Amino acid sequence: MNPIQELITNFQNLVTQVPEIIQPFIVMLAGTIPFIEGELASMIGIVGGLNPIVAAIAAAAGNFLSVLLVVLLTSRARSAVVSRSSVRVAATVGAEGAPPFADDESAPAFMETAPAKPESKGRQRLKKWLTRYGVPGASILGPLAIPTQFTSAFLVAGGTSRAWVLLWQAVAIILWTTVTTVSAWAALTFVVGV
């Protein structure tokens, strides 16, 4: 037995100490963690001895639930920021001790918004990326660079519809989890021989 087979066998023996009914929930919890997500969680499940289909479904479900939570929280935060009223600045004409105007109509009040911060380089890149690939491209290509939770938060914070983000994040999660699950299963079956 080569060292990789021995390592996998030892890991599977460790996993067998956990009740079978709990094993998919552990994979689901692993799928909620950014940078592990559905892709690595399904691999962990397969290496641990779970059925590849059960591992993939549990990992994808955990990843999607965390994305759903992030989208809902980000949407609420965006709504609060957008609905906040702008700042009113009243300016008076004359000397420092001049009496205020009697009515608001003759008062020289100016509606001003707080000065906007210049856009960061990251936000500029994200806008360029969204313009070039759209939400589907950003969702499907996003996991190659950053976790789906971060991608979905950026998209919703930028004003994209929650339903549209959730739809394409679900497509991306299913796609990438399937690709990595099949790859891990094939590698373990045909290359390692476990």
UniProtKB/TrEMBL annotation:
Keywords: Membrane, Transmembrane, Transmembrane helix. The keyword Transmembrane helix applies. The chain crosses the membrane at residues 21-47, 53-74, 129-146, 166-192. This is Small multidrug efflux protein. It comes from Agromyces humatus.
